[in-house]
Amino acid sequence: MRQAIADRMGSTLFVVSIVIMAVVYGTVSSWWGWFPAPQIGLAHRTYLDIAENWRNDLALEPTRHLIVPGGANAGPERGFSGALTGAAAEGYILVSGLSQHQDESFHSVTLYDGAGNEVHRWPIRYAQFNENHKPQNVMLHGMEVFEDGSVVVTFDSGGAMARVDACGATMWNRIGAFSHAITRDGEGHLVTWEGDVITWLDEETGETVKKLDVKDMIAVDDDAQKATFNIRTRTPETADEDIRYMDDPFHPNDAEALRADIADAFPMFEAGDVLFSLRELNLVAVADPDTGRLKWWRHGPWFKQHDPDFQPDGTITVYDNNTGTDKSRILKIRPGEDEVETVFAGSDAVPFYSWRRGKHQYLPDGNILLTEAEGGRVLEITPEGELVWERHMVWDDEHNLVATEARYVPSDFFANGAPRCPSPM
What we know:
It holds the Pfam family Arylsulfotran_2. InterPro entries: Arylsulfate_ST (IPR053143), ASST-like (IPR039535). The protein is an alpha+beta fold. It folds into 2 domains: 50 residues; 343 residues, Neuraminidase (6 Propeller), CATH 2.120.10. Helices cover 16% and strands 35% of the residues. β8 and β9 form a beta hairpin.
C-alpha cells in the first residue's frame, strides 16, 4: 500500500516537474526568441491574418486595403469637400492606391483637375508585371508621373516596378524588390530602393545605371558613420526599450537626389547627392552616391518617418509619422543646424495621423499637400495649418481605401494636355 502511494506521488511529482519546466522554458523562450516561440508566434499571426483577410485573398473584398476614415469629417457623406484655390486650382492632383473601379483594374492612379473633378484614370494591372503574387495581396505604393502622360509604379510585397502609358499598357517592366517612393533626379533617372540598395534606373528603359548599397555605406572607414547604422543608435520608443536586431533592421522607404536647380541652396552638398530615410533607425541622411560617405545625418526627433524632401530654401522637410501618438507631423531642419521646426501637426480642427506610409509636397504658393495614407485621405493645408480641402478615398459607408500618394503637377506639365485614353472600339 505504502509503495503504491509512493509510486503515485513519484509519478505526480514527475508530471508537475515537467509542467514547471515547460512553463519556465516557455517563458524564457518567449523572452529570448528560442524555439518554438518564433514558430508559435508566426503560426498565431498567420491564423489571425487569414481569419481577418480571407475575403481579400479570395478576391471577394479588398480588406487588406480598407481602413477607418481619418479626419474630422469621417461620416457616410464624406468625399470631396472645400475648394481648390491658388496653385492647386491651376494644376492637377494625382492620387494613387486601390481603384474605386474594380471592374477596370485592382489598382489605379487618378487625375483630378483644379475644380476637383476626375479627368483621367490610369488602370494599373499588376498581373501584367508579375505573376507570382495576386493583385489583391500587393499594395501600389510608389508613383511618378511623366510629361507624356505615362506613370511608373512600385508595389509593397509585389516584386515589380513598371512604367505604363496613359491607357495602362506596359512600356517597360522590372522584376525586383522595389517598393515605396520613386523620384526623378532631373538627369533622366529614377531613384528608388531595391531592397537595401538605392538604385538609379534609366527613365526610358528601366535599366539600372547605378547602385548604392547600405552595406557599402556601413563599410566606409569612418567609425562615426558606422555607428550611424547601428540599430542601437536609433531613437527608442521608450527610455527602457529593449532593442533587438529585427528581420528588417533598416526598412528603407525613400531616396531622392539633390537636383541641380536647387543645389546652390545646400552648401554642404552637391547636385546628385542622395537624401534617404531608414525608418527603423529613425534616420534621415545625405550621402555621396559614388563613395557612400555620409555628408549629414540625423536620428529623430521624427519617429518611423517617411518622405524626406529637399526644399528650394535649403531645408529638408520630413513626414514624421510619429507612430503611436495619434498625431503625425511635418518637420523641417536646415542641415548643419540643430533646430527642428514643427511646420504642421494634427489638431482638433484638422486631425492628421498616419501610423505608417504617407507623403507630403510643398506647393508653389506655400501650401502643403498631404497624403494621410492610413486614413485614406488627401488634404491641402495653409502655412498656418488651416484646411483648404480634403478628399476621402471612399469605399463604402464605413471604410476608405488606403491612399499611398498624392502629387501636384502644374497645368502645363503634360506635353499634350491632360492624358486621355481612347475608348475601346
